[in-house]
Amino acid sequence: MQIGGNAVTVTRVPPEKDPGFTVSTFAEAMQKQYIEEYRKKYPIQHPSGPPPEAVQKYAAPEGYSDSYDHFRNFFAAVRSRQPVVEDATFGFRAAGAALLSNLSVEKDNIVHWNPETMKLA
């Protein structure tokens, strides 16, 4: 996954299901036995095959600004006195990993966190 600019690119490569085999150096009877055992473990896939390797790119619409959208949401909540989409607890939890890693580097020690009480342990 790559995140940059206004786009997120996800590259997916399906795992190999059938590792392949080489039996040409064995006797014909042994080849048949080996292939039979191999096919029990790795049956032949559907004719259309496994899903193709894919690169999916998700791009924000032209001219989109996440900061503008964030401020618009905030000011709309203030004007209407309705809760914002993501409250302060959500933001704190979202930023928590970065805050804890910075604190760990600063203290040069492992930081223990209690997610229930949202306090350092």
The mean pLDDT is: 82
The portion of residues forming beta strands comes to 15-25%
Shape: elongated
Taking all Cα atoms into account, the compactness measure Rg is 27 Å
Largest beta-sheet details: 3 strands, antiparallel
Distance between the termini: 33 Å
Number of strands: 5
User: Order of SSEs, N→C?
Assistant: EEHEHHEE
How are the strands of the biggest sheet laid out side by side?
A: 1-2-3
Spans of at least 5 consecutive residues with low confidence: none
User: Helix/strand/pairing class, anyone?
Assistant: alpha+beta
- What is the number of helices? 3
State the share of residues found in helices, binned by percent: 40-55%
Could you characterize what this model shows?
This protein is of the alpha+beta class and 121 residues long. The protein contains three helices and five strands, in the order E-E-H-E-H-H-E-E. It has a three-stranded antiparallel sheet, with no helix packed on it. A two-stranded antiparallel ribbon has the order 4-5.
Describe, in short, the structure shown.
The chain is of the alpha+beta class and 121 residues long.
Topology overview:
Blueprint (H helix, E strand, L loop, with lengths): L1 E3 L2 E6 L15 H14 L12 E6 L6 H15 L7 H20 L5 E2 L4 E2 L1
Antiparallel strand pairs: 1-2, 2-3, 4-5
Core attributes:
121 residues, alpha+beta, two-stranded antiparallel ribbon
